Amino acid sequence: MTDEEKRVDIRKPAGHHCFACGTANPIGLNLKFYSLGDAVCSEIVLEKYHEGWQDMAHGGIISTLLDEVMSWAIMYSKKTFVVTRKMDIKYVRNVLIGTPLTVTGRFVGEAKPPLVKAKAEIRDNEGRLLVRSNGEFVVLPEERLSTVPKDFKDEMFSLFESFD
Predict the structure, then answer these.
(1) pLDDT digit string (tens) for 15-62?
(2) Whole-model pTM?
(3) Cα 89 to the chain's mean position, in Å?
(4) What is the Cα–Cα distance from 32 to 49, expressed in whole angstroms?
(5) Cα–Cα nearest to 61, from 15, 105, 96
(6) In what residue span(s) does the Thioesterase domain sit (predicted)?
(7) Sign of CA dihedral 17, 21, 23, 26
(8) Neighbour tally for 10: CB within 10 Å
């Protein structure tokens, strides 16, 4: 069985405005995710409007990609809401505009509760490592979700239950 055969698309809520993954954000990245073994991945080609220095992706966009795939890796693995506490990023090579990219995140493990850790990387279409990151995230218990609309919470909890 090849890696492509093991790929499982991950469903996400429709109609939300998250800059990274929302389907209703006209200026967002609209990332789509899939699982591959113990990883959650997304593929994207950044455009000129994602540019920092000429022909290079803006560092904030790169950070967003890493943050989002780590968050989804944790949510997929732990079936829970998380928010980012901190990230470190190592830029290894330039991330060029117009290059097919694969962003890969993995749940690393538990830290001191309520913290969990993840790692992520971005590779180009030739498999070269461009950027890597480690992140620490806070698991949010249901009582901390009081500002999240009930219908969205219910939709996300239903989504978590669908994760294998």
Answers:
(1) 889 999 999 999 999 999 999 999 999 999 999 999 999 999 999 999
(2) 0.93
(3) 14
(4) 19
(5) 96
(6) 57-127
(7) positive
(8) 18
Q: For 3-162, which CATH class? A: alpha beta
What DSSP line would sit under the chain, residue for residue? Answer: --HHHH-EEEP--SS---TTT-SS-TTS----EEEETTEEEEEEE--GGGBSSTTBB-HHHHHHHHHHHHHHHHHHHH-S-EEEEEEEEEE-S--BTT-EEEEEEEEEEE-STTEEEEEEEEEETT--EEEEEEEEEEEPPGGGGTTS-HHHHHHHHHHHHH--
User: What is the rounded distance in angstroms from the CA atom of residue 80 to the CA atom of residue 20?
Assistant: 18
Give me the residue spans of the domains in the chain: 3-162
